[in-house]
Amino acid sequence: MPRLSVKVPKYRLHKPSGRAVVTLEGKDFYLGEYGSPESKAEYNRLVAEWQMRGRNSAGPVSSGVVIDEVISAYLVHVEQYYVKHGKPTSSQDEARRSLQILHEQYGQVVVTDFGPLMLKALREDIINQRRWCRTTVNKAISIVKRMFKWASENEIVSAEIYHRLQTVSGLRRGRSAARESDPIRPAPEDQIEAVIQSVSAPVAAMIQLQRLTGMRPEEVVSMRRCDLDCSGKPWIYTPASHKTEHHQKQRRIFIGPKAQQLLMPLLNVSLESYLFSPTDAERQRRRRRHVARKTPRSCGNRPGTNRKQSPQWKPGDRYTTGTYRRAISRACQQVFPPPKHLARAKVPGKKGLRWETDAEWNERLGEKKWLKLKAWQKAHHWHPNQLRHNAATYLRKEFGIEAARVV
């Protein structure tokens, strides 16, 4: 895929003339008196038009443009548009992954030659080679269509191309060779309890809170004291950010007595502090290791004596959905190790033995045993999204189907 620069040309001073200048594609554009509102407005206009044209200052793209050029222009838009609170959203990765396949198959095809048959051929390649499930295939094809819609509305390609691609309908359940995805089911309760006993206190509290309230992983890791209203009987948690906020919907999560008991010991923090902190988990881990040490306290290091001024790694002030998920995954691996004949082995390294990499592990086991290992892991590993379904099951059992639908 064409590599893109995310840098926007700067608004600069042309010292000999005192005018503002911006350089686009190697050509200088003078904007007027440096620092004046008029020159800044002209800069914004030129840069905006340059971005809309796919970072090409020569005017609208001609009919001979190839698909790679459209991909380059669209990915610039993706990097600017799919941002939430200053951070890239998952939509950026989804767009790159889908357009990477388009680039590999049809990157040098002229856009006027790309039509419904090529789009359907691309879809068949995804089904046969990538083995994605039907809903993911449909999403990838929708991203390609969305790119051509964006290119059409910005006069990069003809609107006719986009309208032709719109005639390709999505795959329907049971009407294609694409596999169906497995539904997300509740995690087994016995596995949840075993993991709770193995993880740190903050992670254990997040697991239990999710299981009781049905909140999403992002909502539990980002919970702050200031987001909680504890004035009523059921407390109300209003996340600062949530999945559907771009639809201007407010998310309110009710915290019942059992969940309140979990949160009570964590509320003695500043209003802006996160309730679940990796720093607390690391502090507790060090304390447990100190209590369990076998070396007499009169020997060896005392707490804090080997502390580094600038450590290469230090815990953050909050968990992310990724670190939360990995903490659960590591606990599942520890609590439910695979059978010995499928387990990861140690191999000789530069400094003694080391654990084999995934590639070495796969090669040693072979295809059949590797599939058995994956089946074992699937049966004995679970992820935080499943806890939302556990909560729905619990609420349905305790309060009826209407309460479960709210989760």
Structure description:
This protein is mainly α. It has three domains: 59 residues, no CATH class; 121 residues, DNA polymerase, domain 1 (Orthogonal Bundle), CATH 1.10.150; 134 residues, hpI Integrase, Chain A, CATH 1.10.443.10. 48% of the residues lie in helices and 9% in strands. The protein is built from 15 helices and ten strands. The strands form four sheets. The chain has a three-stranded antiparallel β-sheet with strand order 1-2-3, with helices on one face. Strands 6-7-8 form a three-stranded antiparallel β-sheet. The protein has a two-stranded antiparallel ribbon with strand order 4-5. A hairpin with a 2-residue loop joins strand 9 and strand 10. It starts with 11 loop residues before the first strand and ends with a helix. The relative contact order is 0.08. The C terminus is likely disordered.
Classify the fold: give the CATH topology of the largest domain.
hpI Integrase, Chain A
CATH 4th-level superfamily of the largest domain: Intergrase catalytic core
Average pLDDT works out at: 85
In helices, the fraction of residues equals 40-55%
Strand line-up across the major sheet: 1-2-3
Number of helices: 15
Strand content: 5-15%
Q: What structural class is derived from the secondary structure elements?
A: mainly alpha
Task: Outline the low-pLDDT stretches.
Answer: 57-62, 403-407
CATH architect. name of the largest domain:
Orthogonal Bundle
User: How many angstroms does the end-to-end distance come to?
Assistant: 41 Å
Q: Report the top-level CATH class of the largest domain.
A: Mainly Alpha
| CA gyration radius, whole angstroms | 27 Å
Number of strands: 10
Gross morphology: globular
